[in-house]
Amino acid sequence: MKKIKRGSFAELVIFMLAISLGGIIIWPLLDLLFSAVFTHSDFVYSVQDYVVEPIIFGCIAGLVFWIFDVIAMKKR
Fold this sequence. Notes:
Layout: H1 9-39, H2 47-75
């Protein structure tokens, strides 16, 4: 298996996918828990809120983490 180099484009894609996938799984579960325990309101699933927004957040957060990683590598 090929190793992924730090600071490479592949690492950026992996950061984005991991954060997006985690957001798609965790965000609706936390919102469901919050709705059931604290607000006692109905939980309504929408693609915009629970799929599109975590993907956008994952892309931005992955890019920021990757930039910080590249800057830290250059300082060494």
